[in-house]
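User: Predict the complex with MGD.
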Amino acid sequence: MAGSAEHPFTHGGLYAKVNHYLDRVYGTERLTHPLRRVGAKGEGRFERVGWDDAIADIAGRLKQIVATSGGEAVLPYSYMGTQGLIQGSSLDRRFFARLGATRLERAICASTGSSGVFATMGTNAGILPEEIAHARFIVLWGTNTVVTNLHLWRFIRQAEDAGATVVVVDPIRTRTAEAADWHVRPLPGTDAALAMGMMHVIVRDGLQDKDYVARQTVGVEQLCERLADYTPERVAKMTGLEAEEVVRLARAYAAGAPSLIRLLVGMEHRAYGGMAFRTISCLPALTGDWRHRGGGLLFLTAGPHFEALNAAAVERPELEDGRIRSVNMVQLGRALTDPRMDPPIRALVVYSSNPPAIAPSQNLVLEGLRREDLFTVVHEQVLTDTARHADYVLPATTQVEHWDLLWSWGHDYLTLNQPAIEPVGEAIPNTELFRRLGTVMGFEPELFGDSDQDLIRLALDSNHPSLQGISFEELMKTGWARLRLPEGWTPFAEGGFPTPSGRCELYSKDLARWGMDPLPGFTPSPESAAGNPELAARFPLSLITGKSALHFLNSSYGGLARHRRADVEPHLDLSARTPPAAGSPTAKWSACTTTAVPLRSAPESATGSGPASAPCPSAGERR
Ligand SMILES: Nc1nc2c(c(=O)[nH]1)N[C@H]1C(S)=C(S)[C@@H](COP(=O)(O)OP(=O)(O)OC[C@H]3O[C@@H](n4cnc5c(=O)[nH]c(N)nc54)[C@H](O)[C@@H]3O)O[C@H]1N2
Ligand SMILES: Nc1nc2c(c(=O)[nH]1)N[C@H]1C(S)=C(S)[C@@H](COP(=O)(O)OP(=O)(O)OC[C@H]3O[C@@H](n4cnc5c(=O)[nH]c(N)nc54)[C@H](O)[C@@H]3O)O[C@H]1N2
Ligand SMILES: [Mo]
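Assistant: Here is the predicted structure with MGD placed in the model:
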């Protein structure tokens, strides 16, 4: 497979992850027909069945469960296996809404960070990725760009060629940190303290943009009062950094012309992760970097896609009963095993996700999946850890076998995905699964009659200015189209933040009203020495489970021999020294050497990522 050299963002570059996508499509591990379990759950023994029998039996079981326990006894579980709008969230949403199923909060990625950034800016959309080329001081804060977002690196290189400095803030010496000019290495979960310390120095030294702050922010007085507590010396104790480095970073950041902070998801996987994002996102308003092309903050681009697309026409959210309980996907293990669940989850339908590999509390998730009284249906391309526990495993198409309309969290191009080959074996797309199930369940034909191309047309049926001139026919010709966003976009140069006050909210009345801290700030994690010395003495190490494997996409492609050979085997890097207790002046995390400890790996979950150490707080904002 090859990318299109004409694509302005990717320039034809794929990723190590998908360069050999056809190995996946035609691989021997590929599921090609429906299977029914004959062995024990998790054993992986199945018999082949026909599609009609499988659908009839599944529909019958769901009907019976709904009749005896109510719709809430059914739980859908899906995530980013496909990042297309049509295969990711369309007829499935209609189906589970019609069933009255328990609602799933799909909050495992970027929801926590988004809630934090929303509190400050009213949106999670900052500048566009290409604009990073115009920045002159770039802070890659809790993101491993070289491994996870390589396409952005090209634009960072352009900035470097023009004289930009690149800083990485990450507790780990990642490949990105190695490629940067400056690696700032705070203790995990202390980023909010670092950002507060930077703001302290900026205000103390008079480096803020007074005019921007006065006109485009609210709450600077209250913020300054709080900043008094965050002297570089105190921040050094909280973060394990030298006070001098905090000062140097603050001054260099304030002097950047312009400075840009790039955020992604690493910091979310910690206690008070949302607050870290809220706090960091105050910085560009304080320095007025939003005024300049390439300055400000870069986070996600999903927002501009979803503002433009008519996703509601595709998903039909009005069919959903908002009174029905919801389960946060990070708490699947609890949802499947907690005896207080009333009704208990009796049926689980998983598609486009692999929860034992990606959800926190892996043991609890597996305990749930092993329940004999749980009816589990899994729609998959390969026999994942989840699929091994299914009563029915149904074969799913890959990207080259189905239609889709792809949004992106990493760039501003909308892509039409056309099938290049016939489905392999008896595989069907997600839409077709719910079309068949909806029909056999006897739901309204008008909800399940839309073809995939109809759904794409519905999504594009929008008057939003960003979609001007982008039609199905146009996309059939070009394959992709850049959202009609202004070239050299500086979204908040003149303020206009979509917050209740219309300004950047250093102080948030909404947060105060919801009983939360209205100001940015740092709370030590409950597991840290500052949070709970006893606990920290027993568990002195902090677990970081990032995406360090270049060839895996979360747990996807972990089963491909080529990828497993190419990447490091799943392992744990263990610090040879425990991190310093808060306040300890000598021990420095950055001086730690690490030892690699191999992990036993399951076939599809070879990401090197165990369950996250702390469950993400729930949020529910769209990425
Ligand atoms: N190769 C590869 N690429 C991927 C993926 C993949 O699985 N593999 N997944 C894709 C997906 S779904 C996403 S969301 C993106 C995510 O992209 P990133 O956010 O870049 O990836 P992560 O590895 O989750 O986290 C980034 C970094 O955060 C650091 N980190 C952890 N805790 C803290 C902390 O408390 N403070 C600070 N400052 N840093 C911390 C980790 O050490 C890690 O290096 O990547 C995408 N790209
Ligand atoms: N410990 C730890 N956990 C994490 C993270 C971490 O950094 N550390 N990162 C989190 C993040 S950022 C994310 S985004 C999530 C990702 O969570 P998931 O989206 O669940 O990620 P994958 O493991 O890639 O599982 C996707 C599955 O969908 C299947 N699939 C692909 N396309 C299709 C399709 O069209 N139809 C169907 N039916 N199936 C399909 C794939 O074969 C694959 O098995 O994981 C989160 N979990
Ligand atoms: Mo993600």
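Residues 235 and 322 are 43 Å apart (CA to CA).
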